[in-house]
Design a protein that fits this description.
Layout: E1 5-15, H1 20-29, E2 33-44, E3 54-56, H2 61-70, E4 75-80, H3 86-96, E5 101-109, E6 114-115, E7 118-119, H4 125-135, E8 140-141, H5 145-152, H6 162-176, E9 181-185, E10 193-200, E11 203-210, H7 219-232, H8 237-256, H9 271-278
Parallel strand pairs: 1-2, 1-4, 4-5, 5-8, 8-9
Antiparallel strand pairs: 2-3, 6-7, 9-10, 10-11
The structure holds 3-hydroxy-5-(hydroxymethyl)-2-methylisonicotinaldehyde (PXL).
């Protein structure tokens, strides 16, 4: 069975079940080696807690990368999530273009920028522009509708049809170029439905599923980590998106059992199901 080394670059929100506290366990459960480059350390995520601390780690990036290069370490895949500063986004570009990447290393960007039509706290148009530069280099991106709209200067809508989605996908494909895949979350065509769309050169695939009334930080990170874990197990992008959507939904179902659990998604109790879905 293949065993890949992946580097994930995103923040540590110490409490809050998102970013690295989700990516590490999920990627490890996928049976691969998960290495991390923390982009920032926060006491909690920014989605609902007040007065959180934020310690930016951008300045550490060049020395960490230099050390790894001197140790001849390289990665089969890179996965970026929440990036805390402008300069950091450009440094990530340097990392994926350095000897840390092999010729055929996979580069997946979850362009974490916002949700429900608005940017996360602390983000602005400059960050969006930097993320637009980063996705040019990516093989696969995993935006939600808000992020896809931000990246393409499209008006955000909650009620839409396939033509609207195709319009956004067309603009993303223009930015990214040919041979790339867009995995868009939050794509549902009626009020009780959401789902995921997978788009690559002229091909589209939709996986609709029920919409649960629970909108919390970290859902996108669970989806992205589970998707990449499935890819690293040899599943194609459509099957990986299906597995990730099923696992995310299962995690949300666990969460709604306890209405007091407002800040994150309880994925831990269903990690075993994820491993089973991977066919491991
Ligand atoms: O899950 C996305 C995310 C990641 N990191 C931080 C966040 C959020 C969303 O709120 O605040 C710090």
């Amino acid at each position: 069975m293949s065993y890949k080394r992946i580097l994930t670059i995103q923040d540590i929100s110490c409490v809050g079940q998102c970013s690295l506290t989700v990516a590490l366990p999920v990627l490890s459960a996928s049976g691969n080696e998960a290495c991390i480059l923390p982009s920032a350390v926060l006491s909690t995520h920014t989605g609902g807690f007040k007065g959180y601390t934020f310690h930016d780690l951008t300045d550490d990036f060049p020395a960490v990368a230099k050390h790894w290069i001197s140790e001849k370490i390289d990665f089969d895949a890179f996965y970026t999530g929440y990036l805390g500063s402008l300069r950091q986004i450009d440094l990530v570009n340097d990392i994926v273009n350095s000897p840390l990447a092999k010729k055929d290393s996979l580069f997946v960007v979850d362009p974490v920028l916002g949700d429900n039509g608005v940017l996360y706290k602390g983000f602005n148009a400059e960050i969006v522009a930097a993320m637009r530069r980063l996705i040019k280099r990516a093989d696969i991106i995993i935006p939600n509708i808000t992020e896809a709209c931000q990246l393409t200067d499209t008006e955000y809508r909650t009620d839409f049809d396939k033509e609207y989605i195709r319009g956004i996908v067309g603009k993303l494909q223009q930015i990214m170029g040919r041979g790339k895949t867009i995995v868009m979350t939050g794509v549902g065509f009626n009020p009780n439905e959401t789902g995921v769309g997978v788009f690559s050169d002229g091909e589209e695939f939709y996986y609709p599923h029920i919409k649960l009334d629970k909108n919390v930080s970290g859902t996108g990170d669970i989806f992205a980590s589970a998707f990449i874990g499935a890819l690293l197990n040899g599943h194609d992008t459509k099957k990986s998106a299906t597995i990730a959507a099923d696992f995310t939904l299962l995690s949300i179902k666990e969460t709604v059992k306890n209405p007091a659990h407002w800040y994150g998604v309880k994925f831990e109790t269903v990690l075993g199901e994820y491993i089973r879905m991977l066919g491991r």
